[in-house]
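Chapter summary example.
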Amino acid sequence: MTPEMRARFGPFREEAAAQGIPADDVERWLAMARPCTTLTPAGDEAGPVAGRFGGPLLLPADIPDPAHPFVASVDLSALPADATDLPLPPDGHLLFFALPEPGDGRPVGSVVHVPAGAAVTRRDTRSWNARDNDEYHELFASYPQGPLRASVDVSLPYHQFVVPPGEREAVYLPGHPHCSELVEIWENTQDGIAPAGPLQIGGYADEEAVEFDPVDIAASTAADAVEAGRWDGPVPAGAADWVLLADWYAGRHVRNREGSTVHWVIQREDLAARRFERVFTTVFWNP
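The structure predicted for these 287 residues follows.
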Protein backbone atom coordinates (compact mmCIF):
# COMPACT_ATOMS: atom_id res chain seq x y z
CA MET A 1 0.00 0.00 0.00
CA THR A 2 1.56 3.28 -1.12
CA PRO A 3 1.67 6.34 1.19
CA GLU A 4 -0.67 8.12 -1.23
CA MET A 5 -3.24 5.36 -0.96
CA ARG A 6 -2.99 5.24 2.83
CA ALA A 7 -3.57 8.99 2.93
CA ARG A 8 -6.97 8.44 1.33
CA PHE A 9 -8.22 7.00 4.62
CA GLY A 10 -8.36 10.46 6.24
CA PRO A 11 -12.19 10.53 6.44
CA PHE A 12 -12.17 7.02 7.92
CA ARG A 13 -9.71 8.02 10.63
CA GLU A 14 -11.67 11.17 11.43
CA GLU A 15 -14.94 9.26 11.84
CA ALA A 16 -13.27 6.59 13.98
CA ALA A 17 -11.72 9.25 16.22
CA ALA A 18 -15.10 10.98 16.56
CA GLN A 19 -16.52 7.68 17.82
CA GLY A 20 -13.74 7.34 20.39
CA ILE A 21 -12.03 4.31 18.85
CA PRO A 22 -8.36 4.20 19.95
CA ALA A 23 -5.93 5.23 17.22
CA ASP A 24 -3.90 2.02 17.63
CA ASP A 25 -6.99 -0.07 16.92
CA VAL A 26 -7.80 2.04 13.87
CA GLU A 27 -4.29 1.70 12.44
CA ARG A 28 -4.27 -2.05 13.09
CA TRP A 29 -7.50 -2.28 11.09
CA LEU A 30 -6.12 -0.12 8.29
CA ALA A 31 -3.07 -2.38 8.11
CA MET A 32 -5.42 -4.97 6.56
CA ALA A 33 -6.23 -2.66 3.63
CA ARG A 34 -5.67 -4.14 0.18
CA PRO A 35 -5.35 -2.48 -3.19
CA CYS A 36 -8.02 -3.36 -5.72
CA THR A 37 -9.10 -2.30 -9.18
CA THR A 38 -12.55 -0.85 -9.70
CA LEU A 39 -13.98 -1.19 -13.20
CA THR A 40 -16.76 1.19 -14.17
CA PRO A 41 -18.60 1.82 -17.46
CA ALA A 42 -16.59 4.13 -19.71
CA GLY A 43 -17.86 7.68 -19.85
CA ASP A 44 -16.24 10.89 -18.78
CA GLU A 45 -14.46 9.19 -15.88
CA ALA A 46 -10.66 9.15 -15.74
CA GLY A 47 -8.72 5.95 -16.08
CA PRO A 48 -7.73 3.68 -18.96
CA VAL A 49 -10.16 1.40 -20.73
CA ALA A 50 -9.11 -1.99 -19.38
CA GLY A 51 -11.95 -4.29 -20.32
CA ARG A 52 -15.58 -4.51 -21.25
CA PHE A 53 -18.86 -6.03 -20.26
CA GLY A 54 -20.03 -8.45 -22.92
CA GLY A 55 -18.88 -8.12 -26.49
CA PRO A 56 -17.71 -10.93 -28.78
CA LEU A 57 -16.61 -14.13 -27.07
CA LEU A 58 -13.13 -15.01 -28.36
CA LEU A 59 -11.48 -18.21 -27.12
CA PRO A 60 -8.63 -20.50 -28.23
CA ALA A 61 -9.86 -23.49 -30.21
CA ASP A 62 -8.81 -26.01 -27.53
CA ILE A 63 -11.02 -24.43 -24.86
CA PRO A 64 -14.55 -25.88 -24.78
CA ASP A 65 -17.62 -23.67 -24.81
CA PRO A 66 -18.14 -22.36 -21.26
CA ALA A 67 -21.05 -23.75 -19.25
CA HIS A 68 -22.12 -20.30 -18.00
CA PRO A 69 -22.90 -16.98 -19.70
CA PHE A 70 -20.17 -14.51 -20.62
CA VAL A 71 -19.95 -11.53 -18.26
CA ALA A 72 -16.81 -9.52 -18.99
CA SER A 73 -13.24 -9.49 -20.23
CA VAL A 74 -10.32 -7.68 -18.58
CA ASP A 75 -7.15 -6.66 -20.43
CA LEU A 76 -4.44 -7.40 -17.90
CA SER A 77 -1.82 -5.31 -19.68
CA ALA A 78 -4.08 -2.26 -19.38
CA LEU A 79 -4.48 -2.45 -15.60
CA PRO A 80 -2.65 0.32 -13.75
CA ALA A 81 0.52 -0.45 -11.84
CA ASP A 82 -0.07 -1.83 -8.33
CA ALA A 83 -3.68 -2.42 -9.30
CA THR A 84 -3.97 -5.33 -6.85
CA ASP A 85 -1.80 -7.45 -4.55
CA LEU A 86 -2.66 -10.57 -6.57
CA PRO A 87 -0.14 -12.53 -8.67
CA LEU A 88 -2.02 -11.86 -11.91
CA PRO A 89 -0.55 -12.66 -15.32
CA PRO A 90 1.14 -9.55 -16.78
CA ASP A 91 -0.78 -9.68 -20.03
CA GLY A 92 -3.53 -11.43 -21.94
CA HIS A 93 -7.21 -11.26 -21.06
CA LEU A 94 -9.23 -12.70 -18.21
CA LEU A 95 -12.71 -13.75 -19.29
CA PHE A 96 -15.35 -14.06 -16.59
CA PHE A 97 -18.45 -16.26 -16.83
CA ALA A 98 -21.31 -16.58 -14.36
CA LEU A 99 -24.99 -17.25 -13.87
CA PRO A 100 -26.19 -15.13 -10.93
CA GLU A 101 -28.25 -17.67 -9.07
CA PRO A 102 -27.44 -20.20 -6.32
CA GLY A 103 -25.64 -23.31 -7.50
CA ASP A 104 -26.66 -25.80 -4.79
CA GLY A 105 -23.02 -26.32 -3.87
CA ARG A 106 -21.74 -26.34 -7.44
CA PRO A 107 -19.74 -23.53 -9.05
CA VAL A 108 -21.92 -21.06 -10.95
CA GLY A 109 -19.22 -19.62 -13.18
CA SER A 110 -15.65 -19.85 -14.37
CA VAL A 111 -12.64 -17.82 -15.52
CA VAL A 112 -10.48 -18.31 -18.62
CA HIS A 113 -7.09 -16.68 -19.22
CA VAL A 114 -6.42 -16.05 -22.90
CA PRO A 115 -2.66 -15.38 -23.30
CA ALA A 116 -1.53 -12.41 -25.33
CA GLY A 117 -1.17 -13.31 -28.99
CA ALA A 118 -3.12 -16.57 -28.70
CA ALA A 119 -5.11 -17.60 -31.77
CA VAL A 120 -8.81 -17.33 -30.96
CA THR A 121 -12.12 -18.14 -32.61
CA ARG A 122 -15.44 -16.43 -32.11
CA ARG A 123 -17.99 -18.44 -30.11
CA ASP A 124 -21.75 -18.34 -29.70
CA THR A 125 -22.41 -16.44 -26.47
CA ARG A 126 -25.67 -18.36 -26.01
CA SER A 127 -24.28 -21.90 -26.28
CA TRP A 128 -24.42 -22.30 -22.48
CA ASN A 129 -28.24 -22.26 -22.71
CA ALA A 130 -28.38 -25.66 -24.39
CA ARG A 131 -32.05 -26.18 -23.53
CA ASP A 132 -33.01 -22.88 -25.15
CA ASN A 133 -34.73 -21.74 -21.96
CA ASP A 134 -36.67 -18.52 -22.65
CA GLU A 135 -36.21 -17.25 -19.10
CA TYR A 136 -32.45 -17.60 -19.41
CA HIS A 137 -32.52 -15.84 -22.80
CA GLU A 138 -34.23 -12.87 -21.14
CA LEU A 139 -31.81 -13.01 -18.23
CA PHE A 140 -28.74 -12.97 -20.47
CA ALA A 141 -30.23 -10.20 -22.61
CA SER A 142 -30.11 -7.92 -19.55
CA TYR A 143 -26.38 -8.49 -18.92
CA PRO A 144 -24.49 -5.18 -19.22
CA GLN A 145 -22.54 -4.26 -22.35
CA GLY A 146 -19.79 -1.75 -23.05
CA PRO A 147 -16.22 -0.66 -22.23
CA LEU A 148 -14.92 -0.50 -18.66
CA ARG A 149 -12.43 1.99 -17.23
CA ALA A 150 -10.05 0.97 -14.45
CA SER A 151 -9.03 2.87 -11.33
CA VAL A 152 -6.80 1.74 -8.48
CA ASP A 153 -8.65 1.82 -5.18
CA VAL A 154 -8.35 0.57 -1.63
CA SER A 155 -10.44 -2.06 0.10
CA LEU A 156 -11.18 -2.89 3.74
CA PRO A 157 -13.08 -5.84 5.24
CA TYR A 158 -16.86 -5.74 5.20
CA HIS A 159 -17.19 -8.73 7.53
CA GLN A 160 -16.73 -8.94 11.29
CA PHE A 161 -17.04 -12.64 12.20
CA VAL A 162 -14.86 -15.70 11.71
CA VAL A 163 -15.09 -19.31 12.82
CA PRO A 164 -11.66 -20.31 14.19
CA PRO A 165 -10.19 -23.60 12.89
CA GLY A 166 -11.58 -26.54 14.80
CA GLU A 167 -14.33 -24.47 16.39
CA ARG A 168 -18.07 -24.36 15.71
CA GLU A 169 -19.00 -20.96 17.14
CA ALA A 170 -18.34 -17.66 15.39
CA VAL A 171 -16.32 -14.94 17.10
CA TYR A 172 -15.50 -11.34 16.28
CA LEU A 173 -12.31 -10.95 14.26
CA PRO A 174 -9.51 -11.82 16.72
CA GLY A 175 -7.33 -8.87 17.66
CA HIS A 176 -9.91 -6.31 16.56
CA PRO A 177 -12.17 -5.43 19.48
CA HIS A 178 -13.83 -2.60 17.52
CA CYS A 179 -14.30 -4.49 14.26
CA SER A 180 -18.08 -4.05 14.29
CA GLU A 181 -17.81 -0.27 14.55
CA LEU A 182 -14.98 -0.11 12.01
CA VAL A 183 -16.96 -2.09 9.44
CA GLU A 184 -19.84 0.36 9.84
CA ILE A 185 -17.48 3.33 9.53
CA TRP A 186 -16.12 1.91 6.28
CA GLU A 187 -19.65 1.53 4.95
CA ASN A 188 -20.32 5.18 5.82
CA THR A 189 -17.09 6.63 4.39
CA GLN A 190 -16.25 4.39 1.43
CA ASP A 191 -18.05 6.52 -1.16
CA GLY A 192 -15.70 9.40 -0.38
CA ILE A 193 -12.58 7.22 -0.42
CA ALA A 194 -13.01 4.43 -2.97
CA PRO A 195 -16.50 4.29 -4.50
CA ALA A 196 -17.55 0.78 -5.46
CA GLY A 197 -18.04 -0.08 -9.12
CA PRO A 198 -19.96 -2.88 -10.81
CA LEU A 199 -16.82 -5.05 -11.22
CA GLN A 200 -13.91 -5.27 -8.79
CA ILE A 201 -10.60 -7.12 -9.18
CA GLY A 202 -8.90 -8.11 -5.92
CA GLY A 203 -9.51 -6.57 -2.51
CA TYR A 204 -12.22 -7.75 -0.09
CA ALA A 205 -15.49 -9.33 -1.11
CA ASP A 206 -18.74 -7.50 -0.52
CA GLU A 207 -22.40 -8.39 -0.93
CA GLU A 208 -25.83 -7.15 0.12
CA ALA A 209 -25.59 -8.54 3.68
CA VAL A 210 -22.18 -9.42 5.10
CA GLU A 211 -21.36 -11.02 8.44
CA PHE A 212 -18.78 -13.60 7.35
CA ASP A 213 -16.13 -13.18 4.66
CA PRO A 214 -17.70 -14.29 1.35
CA VAL A 215 -14.28 -15.68 0.34
CA ASP A 216 -14.28 -18.00 3.37
CA ILE A 217 -17.80 -19.13 2.54
CA ALA A 218 -16.81 -19.81 -1.08
CA ALA A 219 -13.71 -21.76 0.03
CA SER A 220 -15.81 -23.90 2.36
CA THR A 221 -18.36 -24.48 -0.42
CA ALA A 222 -15.55 -25.53 -2.77
CA ALA A 223 -14.19 -28.03 -0.26
CA ASP A 224 -17.66 -29.50 0.28
CA ALA A 225 -18.18 -29.70 -3.49
CA VAL A 226 -14.97 -31.68 -3.93
CA GLU A 227 -15.91 -34.07 -1.13
CA ALA A 228 -19.39 -34.58 -2.60
CA GLY A 229 -18.06 -35.09 -6.13
CA ARG A 230 -19.75 -31.94 -7.45
CA TRP A 231 -16.47 -30.28 -8.47
CA ASP A 232 -13.02 -31.61 -9.34
CA GLY A 233 -11.04 -28.46 -8.51
CA PRO A 234 -9.15 -29.99 -6.75
CA VAL A 235 -8.67 -28.25 -3.41
CA PRO A 236 -5.18 -29.10 -2.05
CA ALA A 237 -5.32 -30.47 1.50
CA GLY A 238 -4.54 -27.86 4.13
CA ALA A 239 -4.38 -24.93 1.73
CA ALA A 240 -6.22 -21.94 3.11
CA ASP A 241 -4.92 -18.89 1.24
CA TRP A 242 -8.02 -18.19 -0.80
CA VAL A 243 -8.31 -14.73 -2.33
CA LEU A 244 -10.95 -12.78 -4.14
CA LEU A 245 -10.18 -12.67 -7.85
CA ALA A 246 -13.26 -10.60 -8.71
CA ASP A 247 -16.68 -9.43 -7.54
CA TRP A 248 -19.53 -8.57 -9.88
CA TYR A 249 -22.51 -6.74 -8.40
CA ALA A 250 -24.91 -8.39 -10.81
CA GLY A 251 -28.00 -7.03 -9.11
CA ARG A 252 -27.22 -3.58 -10.52
CA HIS A 253 -27.85 -4.80 -14.03
CA VAL A 254 -29.46 -8.20 -14.40
CA ARG A 255 -33.21 -8.44 -14.61
CA ASN A 256 -34.88 -10.10 -11.62
CA ARG A 257 -31.57 -10.54 -9.78
CA GLU A 258 -31.67 -7.47 -7.55
CA GLY A 259 -29.24 -7.73 -4.66
CA SER A 260 -27.17 -10.53 -6.18
CA THR A 261 -23.36 -10.61 -6.15
CA VAL A 262 -21.02 -13.01 -7.93
CA HIS A 263 -17.70 -13.94 -6.28
CA TRP A 264 -14.86 -15.56 -8.21
CA VAL A 265 -12.31 -16.93 -5.72
CA ILE A 266 -9.08 -18.90 -6.10
CA GLN A 267 -6.18 -20.08 -3.97
CA ARG A 268 -3.20 -17.75 -4.31
CA GLU A 269 -0.84 -20.56 -5.31
CA ASP A 270 -3.23 -21.63 -8.08
CA LEU A 271 -3.46 -18.06 -9.32
CA ALA A 272 0.33 -17.72 -9.39
CA ALA A 273 0.52 -20.99 -11.36
CA ARG A 274 -2.19 -19.81 -13.83
CA ARG A 275 -4.52 -22.65 -12.87
CA PHE A 276 -7.69 -20.73 -13.60
CA GLU A 277 -9.69 -23.94 -13.88
CA ARG A 278 -9.52 -23.94 -10.07
CA VAL A 279 -11.47 -20.72 -9.71
CA PHE A 280 -14.61 -21.39 -7.71
CA THR A 281 -17.62 -19.15 -8.31
CA THR A 282 -20.42 -18.46 -5.85
CA VAL A 283 -23.44 -16.16 -5.80
CA PHE A 284 -25.04 -14.37 -2.90
CA TRP A 285 -28.69 -13.67 -3.63
CA ASN A 286 -31.57 -13.26 -1.25
CA PRO A 287 -34.61 -13.09 -3.57
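To summarize the output: The helical segments are 3-7, 10-18, 23-30, 134-141, 179-189, 214-227, 268-272.
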